[in-house]
Amino acid sequence: MPKLSTWLFAWILCCLSTVAMAQGYEKLYSDYRGSLYQIRLIEKSSNSKAGLGSGFQISPDGLIATNYHVVAQAVSEPDEYSLEYLAVNGTRGKLTLLDIDVVNDLALLRQEKPGDEYLELATDTPKKGETIVSLGNPLDLGMTLIPGTYNGIAGGSFYDRIHFAGSINPGMSGGPAINTQGQVVGINVATAGNQVSFLVPVDKLSSLLKHYRAEGGTLNLKQVTYQQLLDNQQKIIDSILRADWQRRALGEAQVVGEIIPAIKCWGNTQESETNPIKRIDKGCTGQDVIFLSDDFNTGRVEYEFFWLQAEDLLPARFYAEYEGQMDSFYPGNSAGEEDVTNFRCQQGFTSQERGNETSVSKPDRNREPLIARTSYCVRRYKDFPDLYDIFFLSLSVDQKNRALVSHFTLSGFTQESADAFTQKFTSEIQWP
Question: What is the CATH number of domain 31-219?
């Protein structure tokens, strides 16, 4: 009987705790719902919704924060799209776009008439494991509260993102994540499913707000975007070039591995009785891209290698199979003809010394260099003329039944950054 009483007491406590949490969440929502808005992208010709997101007021003068990707079409095509808000009390109004941060996917808007309620931005970082609450309007179903857990800054990314153990759904992008004091700690931005979501840390929003206030409200958003992309590509290339590049074996060659934590590598081997060529693949990709529009993203770094070998094929047959397998390379980012020029390419044969001078014996240093057929292609960004997509492909051609393929794509980098990366990349590939 005492054991039953103990169990019953624990069950009652658990129920009371659950009720208390539910009441706490209900009070949070009740206290701060007036600062929440649905952000609507309006197609002007039809005067109809073309996209939805969430936002929240952050100041007494009516400034509203949301994600850049929620309002991107109004930035890139202002003659075709406008922005409106829908408040929780049913009122609607026009929104003016004030400032953006494309790298951290943030935007600042102003409503025609400021609302009475706004959220404060937190100055203290939550503790890992602390409960926070995401707010937003999923699937146009009305404002929703999603409790979850703060798990710190996610690793393996070019950009700071909070790992939130909760379900952010479509339409909640741009909504706030608040602590139990009602202060904003992050902004909803993405989900990977299964209770894995990501938030932009609130300090990025604080910086954007500071930038807008300092500029006095007279911003050329295209120039703002251009400078942000220039600064971001420089930050990425500096971190890559400063890193300790580690070579990894691929067949008989040594190739580039994971240069920095934000770049992840994967491998695969293709070998079967029906295919006379054994192929070993290694692909490495940065985990982030910058969204500029539905058809245009940038900031990608990716590289890959392929080792091919066959023991019993004549050289002519080997190279026919080799070329057939290596004819489908393309840039890693998406872009339309209104965004970029056509690729312009330089092609030719290049030579590279074999082996590592510090490790091979003296007789081996006199071996013939590795000969490769190389393509180096660039396309310029039409709105950002110092930024390019770079496509590099090198196929070795001097072995009877062995081949090494090297490829990389950089998207949204200056020519100087691309040249520095190319020189470092090619110098790290070794074939003894």
Answer: 2.40.10.120
